[in-house]
């Protein structure tokens, strides 16, 4: 008999029916705890995102409870800017959550491709995230992992940059009857966006999520992260002990002050709740007198401003206590969880931010980087570069001048094409990768010919969605 992982792999193959109602189309994404599939809900024909707990973790009672907590938390939320949970249950020996399927791109992709965003656009996106949090916080639910991959951007009902907040997988239910699911010594979240009280194991409330909103705004306005350490603990320490890096002078002072307040080290110095955050954001925008044609800070090249320091960094002795506290938290988690901690607990670190500013010495030695703009014929085909899904064409990427990459292009109804291309020696180069149509199978004319049929399982889709 096969193990649970093998049975689940078979149960979620394309063409499989899950829970007698979800027809699997293809795998979409994978994380530390789960995997997401594109599926069709039968018999109504609705496309859904089906998230499952990895079978290897299905025997861990606490992780099962945490996975179901996500379903319970989000099922309580009905805000238009929050992802909608349609169903949840158990199938093939593991747990699943069925969510609405979205078409668009993550905020991470938007910033990575477009660089710093104009102030009005950044504020429009941030206002919707905060609006989703007003309902969550009113129902005593913290997100605790707000970051660009968990913010989805699409055009819906004629509205551009419509936001959906995703992944309440480590959400905390702040009610007295809930059983705490954070083991002693564990720290959950992503270090680049964690408030000091979160990484230090302190008491959390809605203002912890507001700190992450401040970091998101800082990143949207600059195209990079405010703090980036050499490892997760170093990054968390920078959030806790270092002054808030100054925003460029191209950002109006009222907006700079608002972002600094949202990123205050002391939780009591931030906006008191999500609605207050929205009100102060709108006031800062109005005081900035920002025209709609405001360009991104990238268009100007001001001299680097001095670091902003509304919250002086703790003295050396205080910093030492912070370090000892963080190390103690992590060591306790390691002792209690063992090998599993490397998978689902501790600091959940993102991929290194390619937009982060390198040290001066590294910048001086960095090789020349150029840009490739990849288009496809037909348009909007899915582009994968060296195994990394970049979404639908057109795609702009940067790399070392003259270096090679392998580009795989696929789309429904066409043969997948894989080509090796080089970055130009200078500037930007545009290339177009063509796809050939798949031959259409003709039905046999006699029963005898049935044995020669091959049903082509179409796995290539042009939908683009990240969880």
* CATH first level of the largest domain: Mainly Alpha
The secondary-structure class comes to alpha+beta
Number of domains: 3
Helix % is 25-40%
Q: Can you tell me the CATH superfamily of the largest domain? A: Transferase(Phosphotransferase) domain 1
Radius of gyration: 24 Å
Largest sheet: 6 strands, antiparallel
Strand content: 15-25%
Low-confidence stretches: 173-186, 291-306, 312-318, 329-366, 445-467
* Order of neighbouring strands in the sheet with most strands: 1-2-3-4-6-5
The end-to-end span amounts to 33 Å
Instruction: Give the count of helical stretches.
Output: 12
Shape: globular
Report the strand count.
18
**Average predicted local confidence, pLDDT:** 76
Quote the CATH topology of the largest domain: Transferase(Phosphotransferase), domain 1
CATH architecture of the largest domain: Orthogonal Bundle
Instruction: Encode the helix/strand succession as letters.
Output: HEEEEHEEEHHEEEEHHHHHHHHEEEEEEE
